[in-house]
Amino acid sequence: MKALRVLNNNVVLARDDKGQEVILTGRGIGFSSRQGKPVDPALIVRVFVPADGRDPDHLSEVLALIDEEVLRAVVIALDEAGIEGRESTRPTLAIAVADHVAGALDRAARGITVEYPLRAEVQALYAAEYAQAQRLLAAINERVDPRLEEPEAIALALHLVNAGFATGDLSFTYTMTGIIQQMLAVVRQRHGLSVAQESMSAARFITHVRYLFVRIQQHRQLKGHESTIGQGIRRHYPEATRTAQQLATIVELRLGQRLSEDEVSYLALHVARMTTEPDGTLA
Asked: Which residues form the signal peptide (predicted)?
């Protein structure tokens, strides 16, 4: 890879062997790089390949503005926690996490404690990301001073969830979390159940809804006209379908997006699973 522009000691904008612009990070990588010259591969810790039309030049400039030691700690920690390998298409994740860590370190140094109100929701709805966030926090704490407290894993988990969406901040993730909680409350109320969020059927429902939000963000909902499978779901699960229609109304009111007939049908299928399968309820 050849250097196009040196941003600082730790960040270099380069061009890889395929001719695409990439962002390279690593301690001292900028110090030893020269424009138009090959970059020493031994100094490369992470290769960011900006996706979705994001401007590599702009992203590299943003990365260069982050404290070098904080960025280094985060980049290495993401790898150690098993969240991202050496090559990544999500520089915005590293930027968001590093920015958060920098703010958290500043608060910790000043003795300021932050209580995150979504702790229970994150642990229940995003169990996988929360587990990743705990590993990430432990890896970061090996490289920063002062050490960050355990509640910071909640915020890091939200950043990991947010990385699956096109938005650049956490506002959509907060909204999504509230909508999922509202949906589960409707299922409990309509069917007289206490839905076990840790159950397999509820976990499948939560995963389905998260991908539904991705499709909404990308304007790629399932077929706009009801398919044969969708018709079958509605015919076999009429009560779950009525619940799903109410859930669709919640989505429309909160996000301003009307769900297609097939999206409603698949919601109904997951509602039926939660309300009929043995692992879907608690005594």
From this structure: none
pLDDT of residue 281 exceeding 50: no
Query: Which percentage of the chain shows pLDDT scores above 90?
Result: 50
The predicted model gives 113-122 an average pLDDT of 79
Which one, of 209, 214, 96, 70, lies nearest residue 88 by Cα? 96
For CA atoms 197, 168, 134, 44, give the dihedral sign.
Answer: positive
Whether the bond between 151 and the residue before it is cis, its omega within 30 degrees of 0, is: no
DSSP SS3 for 41: helix
What is the tally of structural domains in the chain?
3
Same domain, 140 and 182: no
Paired tokens of 135: 């590993």
Which residues contact residue 131 at a Cβ distance below 8 angstroms, ignoring those fewer than 6 apart?
none
Residue 46 pairs in a beta bridge with 25
Question: Do 206 and 159 share a domain, yes or no?
Answer: no
